[in-house]
UniProtKB/TrEMBL annotation:
Gene3D superfamilies: Citrate Synthase, domain 1, Cytochrome P450-Terp, domain 2. The keyword Transferase applies. GO terms for molecular function: citrate synthase activity. It catalyses: oxaloacetate + acetyl-CoA + H2O = citrate + CoA + H(+). Pathway: Carbohydrate metabolism; tricarboxylic acid cycle. It holds the Pfam family Citrate_synt. Belongs to the citrate synthase family. PANTHER family: CITRATE SYNTHASE, CITRATE SYNTHASE, PEROXISOMAL. The gene is citZ. It is an enzyme of class 2 (transferase). This is Citrate synthase. Keywords: Acyltransferase, Transferase, Tricarboxylic acid cycle. The active site is at H259, D314. The lineage of its organism: Archaea, Methanobacteriati, Methanobacteriota, Stenosarchaea group, Halobacteria. InterPro entries: 2-MeCitrate/Citrate_synth_II, Cit_synth_Halo_CitZ, Citrate_synth-like_lrg_a-sub, Citrate_synth-like_sm_a-sub, Citrate_synthase, Citrate_synthase_AS, Citrate_synthase_bac-typ, Citrate_synthase_sf.
């Protein structure tokens, strides 16, 4: 048994996986061998889910069946929707409400007993957008919109959020964002889902745990933090470069920068930046594009990028969602709406050759403390 300590499990191999590969040195991401740029350009989120869950990109007929299967599972029980409204009324944060609602979904999943991870996972994946859209509408004092089975996963979410069918640009942009966020090796939330899955707990537990892990500011929560930073820059009245110089002088971490695996710019950040540029060109609203690119180029000049601290997926995603009119605190839940596909794929893959995940901590406490009964302490 090795006594070498690997803080944060950095670089430790704990499983084999065919699902996604992150090459952090050159900034390349593949899902089952397909480059993320090609998938972002050419594959819908449902195609990516099929790829991750069933091992191949679907044929047209397989895709039609798969889409219909997911669309048939979008409805959420009234009791869960009522709880979602209660959470919205109580002012809960959307990511916390999503965590509670996913956990609650299991009570209404009549088929859950003994069924496979993929079947249960498909139901959870189909229902998450319904829960989230209902939460947002409840906050706005609006009734939930029923899912439309004729719309895509992305299009239906935007429809349920706003009550209006999205235009093609919005649907395609959102669908691309879902594709980009679907999987990323053993990141913290996927590992959390895997640890839970390795105990043979149900998949609701894995997804609930995954949502909790994703919510943190070092992980998925950073996309909201980036947008909060951009608003802070705006409110400061300073030029973004001056603002970020001051922030660095005060030793502030810049959200959306740095990554455990990437030592160069994240390929997804490159794709999202390009999309933001397209959206800014067509709307004429260039503010967040100018701020983000100015911050990025200042940090590059400062040598951060050279040190391997470069923009990650969260740096540009929020500005894209903002251009689509999506509220800031839905950015991380939207990440969860996509990453749930990866959590389920990994749990399914891992359980096929399961081994309980149970590392060790080096004990640094006292060896022999003398016990004193409570009344004598
Ligand atoms: C979807 C995702 O989860 S992507 C990541 C989203 N998270 C963020 O964007 C939050 C900001 N980024 C970070 O906090 C980090 O880069 C992490 C947590 C993502 C990865 O960090 P780790 O691999 O643990 O690296 P660690 O925190 O040890 O940082 C290494 C060095 O880079 C610096 N650094 C890392 N990120 C940043 C940053 N965003 N801004 C400034 N400096 C940074 C650290 O201060 C540290 O410097 P030091 O060696 O001089 O002390
Ligand atoms: O891989 C990681 O550590 C963080 C993550 O989830 C991502 O970048 O998508």
């Amino acid at each position: 048994m090795s006594n070498e300590l690997k803080r944060g499990l950095e670089g430790v191999l704990v499983a084999e996986s065919e699902l996604s590969h992150v090459d952090g040195e050159v900034g390349k991401l593949v899902y089952r061998g397909y480059d993320i740029e090609e998938l972002a350009r050419g594959a819908s989120y449902e195609e990516v889910l099929h790829l991750l869950w069933h091992g191949s990109l679907p044929t047209r007929a397989e895709l039609d069946d798969f889409r219909a299967e997911l669309a048939a599972e979008r409805a959420v029980d009234d009791e869960v929707l009522s709880t979602v409204r209660t959470l919205a009324d109580a002012g809960d944060r959307p990511m916390a409400a999503l965590r509670t609602a996913v956990s609650m979904l299991s009570a209404y999943d009549g088929d859950a007993e003994g069924e496979g991870v993929l079947a249960e996972g498909a139901r959870i994946t189909a229902k998450i957008p319904t829960v989230l859209a209902a939460f947002e509408r409840a906050r706005q004092g609006e009734a939930a919109v029923d899912p439309d089975p004729d719309l895509s996963h992305a299009g239906n979410f935007l429809y349920m959020l706003t009550g209006t069918e999205p235009d093609d640009v919005s649907e395609e942009t959102f669908d691309m964002a879902l594709t980009l966020h679907a999987d990323h090796g053993l990141n913290a939330s996927t590992f959390t889902a895997l640890v839970i899955g390795s105990t043979m707990a149900d998949v609701y537990s894995s997804v609930t745990g995954g949502i909790g892990a994703l919510s943190g500011s070092l992980h998925g929560g950073a996309n909201q933090d980036v947008m909060e930073m951009l608003h802070e820059v705006d409110a400061s009245g300073k030029d973004p470069v001056e603002w970020v110089r001051d922030a660095r002088e005060n030793d502030r971490r810049i959200p959306g920068f740095g990554h455990r695996v990437y030592k160069v710019k994240d390929p997804r950040a490159r794709i999202l930046e390009g999309k933001l540029r397209d959206l800014a060109d067509s709307s004429g609203d260039r503010k967040w594009l100018e701020y983000t690119t100015a911050i990025e180029s200042h940090l590059a000049d400062e040598g951060l990028v050279e040190k391997g601290i470069a923009p990650n997926v969260d740096f540009y995603s929020g500005s894209v969602y903002d251009a689509m009119g999506i509220p800031m605190d839905l950015y991380t839940p939207i990440f969860a709406m996509s990453r749930v596909g990866g959590w389920i794929a990994h749990v399914h893959e891992y359980q096929a050759d399961n081994r309980l995940i149970r590392p060790r901590a080096r004990y640094t406490g006292p060896e022999a403390a003398e016990f004193v009964p409570i009344d004598e302490r």
